[in-house]
Amino acid sequence: MRYLTAGESHGKQLTTIVEGVPALMPLTSDEINESLLRRQKGHGRGKRMQIEKDLVDIAGGVRHGYTLGSPLALIVKNDDFKHWTDIMGEDPIDEDKKLRRVVTRPRPGHADLNGAIKYGHRDMRNILERSSARETAARVAAGAVAKALLKNLGINIVGYVNEIAGIKAKDYPELTIEDKMKISEESPVRSLDPEASQKMMDAIDKAKKDGDSIGGICEVYVEGMPAGIGSYVHYDRKLDARIAFAVQSINAFKGVEFGIGFEAARRHGSEVHDEIIWSEETGFRRRTNNLGGFEGGMTTGMPIVVKGVMKPIPTLYKPLQSVDIETKETFNASIERSDSCAVPAAAVVMEHVVAFELAKAILEQFPNDQFPKLKKAIDQYREEVRCF
Ligand code: EPS
What we know:
Elements: E1 2-6, E2 13-19, H1 29-40, H2 48-51, E3 56-60, E4 62-63, E5 66-67, E6 72-77, H3 85-88, H4 95-98, H5 112-119, H6 125-131, H7 136-152, E7 156-164, E8 167-168, H8 177-186, H9 194-209, E9 216-223, H10 239-248, E10 253-258, E11 276-279, E12 283-286, E13 294-295, E14 298-299, E15 304-310, E16 320-323, E17 330-333, H11 343-365, H12 371-386
Antiparallel strand pairs: 1-2, 2-6, 3-6, 4-5, 7-8, 7-9, 9-15, 10-15, 11-12, 13-14, 16-17
Helix pairs in contact: 1-7, 1-11, 5-6, 7-11, 10-11
Family: Belongs to the chorismate synthase family.
Pathway: Metabolic intermediate biosynthesis; chorismate biosynthesis; chorismate from D-erythrose 4-phosphate and phosphoenolpyruvate: step 7/7
Keywords: Amino-acid biosynthesis, Aromatic amino acid biosynthesis, FAD, Flavoprotein, FMN, Lyase, NADP
């Protein structure tokens, strides 16, 4: 299974092609829309999210609520495009019109300058339109398909926020995944800790007032993945490495951790590794889950716990020094419209990119053109693992 996305932030639409989804899998646009809507929410989102109402148009690959086995084409229209038809149109336009909204002033922390150097664009709109986090809507659409596949195989996944601007949510090891889904959905910052939620919202409000932005840490939690998915035999078959790649590729993400993550550097081996236990009913398990569900690039059968860190959004109201690429004059970069914090939305994006890697790994290990046969193969494998 793989996917590609196309489309610019203020262009007509975002398009996602997902290939390799088995036939006969139940899938509705409602499921994808629910994911898209969740991504749009969150305290700290800017004005653009009031303009867009992300809805998917499934333009291929699904008929009467089931996948066909052919590529899926998922379209999300940009409502803001009506204000950008000249600026973003695909046909040649007059020179005088072309000069409108030309961007020659790179924003520190964005792709603007490096992208202009790489592709030879003198108008950095050609960079920022594609490097914008608007593209994550297309990735969520692909991830929603993966989530449907996982759900139908009894694998559940949720993303939430652990930390914003240094305000940490408490750990709640006793919560079930259903609790985590429900509680995070009710929090305007997607946190499991109501007290921290309020403090995070206050921090976002303050950042907004100050014309600044703040980042944070998201966590994705997965239950139901059988042991032995992924592989240790080659670097590019290690599933934790693939997840790390996918998470790191989300706009503004700067790092990834599994389980206790960087804390492992500070502990002795005896305090890190998870002891192996066995019972007739469950088969092999781990007493703890410090390693976050992975050993040797393969799932252990324990919940997958992965964290990603998002830097503060670099599009700032508060000016930062930069240099105009035409005049070479120093100026103070600032903008008219931005999100002051997109960490709650990023938790949803992270949930979806992780879901895609999991579904892809399952299909690689149990290739099947027909979903009911895949389900059977997974059920049988689970039983083999239990009886091992
Ligand atoms: C973004 C800037 C803002 C965000 C956008 C990402 O958009 P605009 O420039 O239109 O105000 O709202 O995010 C989305 C549109 C989205 O769907 O997440 C940027 O510079 O990356």
